[in-house]
Amino acid sequence: xxxxxxTVNGVEHSVEAEPKMPLLWVLRDVIGLTGTKYGxxxxxxxxxxxxxxxxxxxxxxxxxxxxxxxxxxxxxxxSESGDHPLQVMWDELNVSQCGFxxxxxxxxxxxxxxxxxxxxxxxxxxxxSRNLCRxxxxxxxxxxxxxxxxxxxD
Amino acid sequence: xKKISNGLPFMLEALGxxxxxxTKFDPFTHVRNNGRDSRTVILNLSRRSFLKTSALAGGSVxxxxxxxxxxxxxxxxxxxxGTREEAVSDSEFRPNVFVALHxxxxxxxxxxxxxxxxxxRSSIPPLIADEMEADLERVHVLQADGDAMYGDQNTDGxxxxxxxxxxxxxxxxxxxxxxxxxxxxxxxxxxxECEAENHVVYHRAxxxxxxxxxxxxxxxxQPVPEDPAFKPREKWRYIGKEIRGTDNRDIATGKAVxxxxxxxxxxxxxxxxxxxxxxxxxxxxxxxxxxxxxGVREVVSLPLASASPGFGSLGGLAVVAENTWAAFQxxxxxxxxxxxxxxxxxxxxxxxxxxxxxVKAPGKVIRKTGDEAAAFDSAAxxxxxxYYVPMLAHTPxxxxxxxxxxxxxxxxxxxxxxxxxxxxxxxxxxxxxxxxSKVTIHITLLGGGFGRKSKPDFICEAAxxxxxxxxxxxxxxxxxxxxxxxxxxxxxxxxxxxGFDEDGKAVSxxxxxxxxxxxxxxxxGVKYASEGELNLGFTTVPYDIPNMSCExxxxxxxVRIGWLRSVCNIHHSFAINAFAGEMAHSVGRxxxxxxxxxxxxxxxxxxxxxxxxxYGENLEEAPYHTGRLRAVLERAARESGWGSQALGPGxxxxxxxxxxxxxxxxxxxxxxxxxxxxxxxxxxxxxxxxTYVNADRVRAQMEGNLVFGLTLAFNGRITATNGSIxxxxxxxxxxxxxxxxxxxxxYLTESEMIxxxxxxxxxxxxxxxxxxxxxxxxxxxxxxxxVRLA
Lengths: 154, 790
Known about the structure:
The structure holds two protein chains of two kinds.
Chain A: E1 2-8, E2 11-17, H1 23-31, E3 49-52, E4 55-58, E5 71-73, H2 85-92, H3 102-115, H4 121-128, H5 138-153
Parallel strand pairs in A: 1-5
Antiparallel strand pairs in A: 1-2, 3-4, 3-5
Helix pairs in contact in A: 2-5
Chain B: H1 29-36, H2 48-53, H3 55-58, H4 83-89, E1 93-96, E2 99-101, E3 107-111, H5 124-132, E4 139-143, H6 165-187, E5 194-197, E6 200-203, E7 208-211, H7 212-220, H8 248-252, E8 268-273, E9 281-286, H9 288-292, E10 296-302, E11 316-321, H10 324-332, E12 335-339, H11 348-360, E13 364-369, H12 372-378, E14 381-389, E15 401-406, E16 412-416, H13 421-432, E17 439-443, H14 457-469, E18 473-476, H15 479-484, E19 492-500, E20 506-514, H16 531-534, E21 547-552, H17 569-586, H18 591-599, H19 626-640, E22 651-660, E23 663-674, E24 677-688, H20 695-714, E25 720-721, E26 724-725, E27 743-748, H21 766-778
Helix pairs in contact in B: 5-6, 6-7, 13-14, 17-18, 17-21
């Protein structure tokens, strides 16, 4: 066991954990932030996506010992009161069905819009195809991203 | 609920299964027994003494209001919430178990069904609110625990609206009538002169009005009307509209609580190593290295299930740890020697050959009209084809998981993403050999269900481990467990033959199907499909052909077989619609035109069912009807530009239409085949589900079924070697991704017919519409899934 200091959503957490423990399980079971989901454990589905210094990463594939001073943002920290344009559009367009994969979808979309504020359909297809949704909400995710991009632009 | 004394893990009799032979299994019997026949109990619960003992008031209701449902306050620790629970028990007016009205005007509506993404929490509460004339903005949605007082909670078979539409309305109408009576009594005017509208009762003649909250106390004193009148259709406020999702905001902010997110103080984390085959045994194991993994507390050996495990725990070696990851790591270090038993012989490739041999020979005749053999002899031409669909796994994004707390007083409290909380309660009680009244099942949000979470095996695991270690325990299945120890969709082989007259009109039809039955999961030696399974799209083929034979061949199961979204309709609709496409192709006819000819004139097909419909439908009010099949197909063709689209090289369009769960769905697909790969360019789907509640969720289910159907058509394949499943995770059991999702158009039929199902009916015609489009594009039929081009 070792002690690590993680900055999650702007808050420092001192965590005792095995060096190889994936960030996913540190967030969920140790710190208690359960918005980050376990879907596959092998980096295939994107349900565990978090932002590391603003870039999307698979928290199931990142050991706690590899994090260093990277700033971690989870879905709980995306906005102060849940009103980021992506969260607003996810609500307005009723994107979610079961909703389990959506935190990962939203964070992946957030990172894409940071690097491509005006994504084409092909951009969205390419970037968002990293994330799986068994309910099949892809059509609405795409539309919500387009509309949120407009809001971000304004 | 009945119990079985012989130790079988579920109420087989209640499911219509003979516990000895298993031959009567019908996955929808329970819908009929516990569905339409069970009426909502309307009681005036406003007496506080009753309230104190009701499950709603007394249980840990950790679900908060509309827009904040399933929300944990500052942490997902469900034990720390419950403020709304007090608000409900303080409500002055509780006309029945589904509705409560507080003096401040807050309305609490209890949703008793499980939310797995189908939108039930955004459909039933608005439906009740509509009949109550309650303002949806002031409605808080509460989630019920598993309890018989709510009637049928088994969320399965696309039943939540279609079987209980009038019951939900009655729950709301009762409240409205009592509120109106209260106001009328207070004003000394006849109730008929008063009218409820959006949280207020009016007496227009005298200009008086009273807010719902102000009437709550007096309403509680009113007699409960036995048969409250429903609102006229034109006054519906929410029904049929696009209604915002109850849990949208919580999902988008990470606050929604799924089973996997439950946290109970002092909880330990477990994960179970199962025997690779069903019915194997544990010879020996060595946990020494496991116990050295930091965070691992202990290893518990759970009794192994038989070869017919039903809904009970599979058993195995449970690693109990301080966090999920340590439990997973501990499993990696386990050394276990298994005797794999008889099912180690299961090879899916060889098994496929036995299924295909089964349908090459005559089978058990299920339906016969005319003389198909003679008609083949005299036909101008005939064609035949065999179809194969492999095993499929459910893979909801949230793996099976449950939290259980077996307490010192011998009771067991469980939190689980379950589709069937009452069934889970009974099964956990039988597993622990305690009274059902000592088991509590809290229904969390489900991160997808699709039928997998109807089965409480994973909840039983949690209960057993909690009892063994004396602490609350959360069991988490790895994705690999979820795929390899699923209740699989049956692999199936089908053979079809058609005969035509000189004009290309079909005069004879032979269809044979063979697949291991769901009944096999509950009883050994089952060889044939149940009547209920065969009624899922097979016996019920709607074609207007004078000579028909539908036959069922033998098939023995070697893994747990279960129901997956739309169940046997998946393979039956695929084969029937794909064969219809081949028939049209063989006689040089347009697919849609030929499908319409096969469907024949607009007519009721009720004479197929001597007693009741295959989905428990009310056939008197809504006959199984070719007119509705024709209408959705014609509309899908029209909207897609069928016949008027200029198709480029490698492009083709295909159509399919199917009835299931009381609803009618047609899909038209447009594909482009290039470099030996298929891309779906556009999909047009039409659903006629009669009256619907939340138009937006109906569209969403059509969209979701499209993706689900294309996933199984392009990627769905589970295989077995030496009795073990070869696939393990999303790299080799792939789901469709966004870039493969076509431009999609959904159309809802406006109808005043009684409601049909929504969660499943969109799925069955997806795969054959796709393969018919490939046939049109390439001239070559597709006869097995997943699609492989010739």
